[in-house]
């Protein structure tokens, strides 16, 4: 499925979830930390391409798949550059980045319409840094109720460990999907009042690891 279709199909659902709404606040608060890495002595640097447009423009593009593809691809390039240049960050997103990273940036943008898209992307990266995977690990497929997502195995282990610590999951943090883990995920999602998918989505990671 093309990137624009993947993101377009999930965007309206993801943007409504309370777990992602917290990212807007965290991202805004962390903006200064991202700017501190700028190139010149005054903390300024040139922003090229789509990143120089405002968040309001990005939000308006969400309803136009033919336009949004350009934004989504730019944001995936941004995430890739972060993974390449920042130490201790094999992958900033523990789940499917083609859908989730643009969604998180969109939440930041909806709360900060005049912010530049590059700044919003930087804020989103800082806010979800606790979710990053520090080293490569295999992708595993996790399925529930007819839907399947790909996730790094080490990230799945972290999520399992978080649910074990909360005494919700009784199994092992081994990075292997199971019916018991799906049931535990649903129970946790239900308790957090987010979408009950039984899948290790970005909302669940934020609730279980970032907002402890």
UniProtKB/TrEMBL annotation:
InterPro entries: Peptidoglycan-bd-like, PGBD-like_sf, PGBDSf. Residues 154-205 form the Peptidoglycan binding-like domain. Gene3D superfamilies: PGBD-like superfamily/PGBD (1.10.101.10). Transmembrane segments: none annotated. Keywords: Signal. It comes from the Bacteria. Residues 1-38 form the signal peptide. SUPFAM superfamilies: PGBD-like. This is Peptidoglycan binding-like domain-containing protein. It comes from Sphingobium xenophagum. The lineage of its organism: Bacteria, Pseudomonadati, Pseudomonadota, Alphaproteobacteria, Sphingomonadales.
